[in-house]
Design a protein that fits this description.
The chain is mainly α and 294 residues long. It has one domain (9-222). Helices cover 74% and strands 2% of the residues. It is built from twelve helices and two strands. Strands 1-2 form a two-stranded antiparallel sheet. A hairpin with a 5-residue loop joins β1 and β2 (144-146). The chain is globular.
Length: 294
């Protein structure tokens, strides 16, 4: 029973963070048609920046309930700076072959890794007892669930609902969806497509940096965490379907629960289990579980 609860909570926690990053990957591809390999780097630099923000909050004696807004705010602030800068560089390859996109976004992966090494050093960084400060929920059966895991799951759900409301209900969200369908027509209707691309890419970056910031109280930030996340994020996209937001949710849940189950039952199978899933989906349903047929 205890093992089952740990798998459910641990899987949902990992799925929540993965979903945020995968949503950023999906929205950028859906609107700008760019496969962004740098999504893991935004996640990693968001984690390091979150640690710095938490250290400042601790020095300023911010109460515990203020740590979550600090982490989310640090991710959004970082994205507001990084998003427009990186998107400006990507404008040169919007209408180029996909190979240019992959090479340039991979170049950003290497650049951000060096930036992290220069600013924060090569050693892993982690917060001091922040994870334990949030306490635990005690179930009737005597089992305990880390409260922070549940908070992150709730924050991810809230952010996804806000994103859905923004895309479906606001005027700019409708322009974003129209641009995803036919950018040339939107440009003919005097819509500033360049501005739409900038906002969309910054939103994708924000989802990645916020996901990275939220995960740091539960794990250490390290140089290789971005590369590891790229593998998981693309597994989510392949399983769920490229360009599908519901697919990102389904893929994140599958990857999160499979990974948690593998860690609990047979840790050596953790990475292999994800690859087996991806291969199976590519063979049986290449477009993904909820992807559109090409």
């Amino acid at each position: 029973m205890l093992s089952s609860v740990n798998i459910l909570v641990g899987g949902a926690f990992h799925a929540a963070v993965l979903f945020l990053v995968a949503c950023g990957l999906q929205i950028v591809f859906g609107v700008q048609k760019i496969v962004n390999l740098a999504c893991g780097s935004f996640y990693a630099i968001g984690a390091y920046f979150g640690i710095t923000a938490l250290a400042l909050a601790f020095q300023m004696h911010v109460p515990v309930f203020g740590y979550i807004p600090v982490l989310v705010g640090s991710g959004l602030l970082l994205a507001a700076f990084l998003g427009p800068v990186v998107e400006r560089v990507l404008r040169f390859i919007y209408h180029r072959d996909e190979h240019f996109q992959l090479l340039l976004t991979f170049a950003f992966v290497l650049m951000f890794e060096d930036i992290i090494r220069i600013i924060w050093g090569a050693s892993p960084r982690q917060t001091e007892n922040i994870y334990q400060v949030f306490g635990e929920f005690h179930l009737a059966s005597g089992m305990t669930i880390p409260a922070y895991n549940l908070i992150v799951i709730a924050v991810a759900i809230a952010l996804s609902l806000v994103l859905g409301w923004f895309l479906q209900r606001t005027r700019f969200g409708k322009i974003v969806r129209a641009t995803a369908e036919n950018a040339a027509m939107c440009e003919a209707l005097c819509i500033d497509v360049s501005r739409v691309y900038m906002v969309v890419f910054t939103l994708g970056v924000a989802l990645g940096t916020t996901g990275g910031a939220l995960v740091v109280p539960a794990t250490a930030a390290s140089l290789d965490m971005g590369v590891e996340l790229i593998v998981d994020a693309f597994a989510v996209v392949v399983i769920g379907g490229l360009g599908s937001m519901p697919g990102a949710l389904v893929g994140a849940l599958i990857v999160g629960f499979v990974r948690a189950a593998a860690i609990s039952i047979y840790p050596e199978f953790e990475v292999l289990a994800i690859y087996v899933l991806v291969i199976a989906v590519l063979i049986l349903r290449p477009r993904g579980l909820l992807g559109k047929a090409i």
